[in-house]
Give the backbone structure.
Amino acid sequence: MSELPFWKMIPMEQMSSRQWESLCDGCGRCCLNKLEDWDTGEIAWTNIACWLLDGNSCRCRDYDNRQQLVPDCIALTPETVRQLSWLPPTCGYRLIREGRDLYWWHPLVSGDPHTVHEAGISVRSRTVAEEDIPIEDYEDYLVDWPFEEVFAEQD
């Protein structure tokens, strides 16, 4: 008899720090600049990466100090995850919040941190550096990421 994985048994608020952090699939999409329509709340995705995002590993270059270095960086906690509307539809945190399961490419399912890249879900090699782009030009960098259209229809 196999035991259910922790993310199916433990509420987000009761997960250990290690369990919580492991819900991140390493796609890097939360570290992209997003544009929000003030009237509708609709989120438009860009391929403009936070200056701390490593474009190859899709991980933060200074995770422990990111909020001091990037004041608008939002720490993902159970409380913030429940409030954020812009988490990617493939995000482990969002999936767990919605009572859904993790996808096959998630490292907790596949056992391999590279499957998120192999599946084409991550931002690896698909971003531009924010420091090179004036904020008024961000609209020139709008992109669609995998699964956005499918989940937009379900929301």
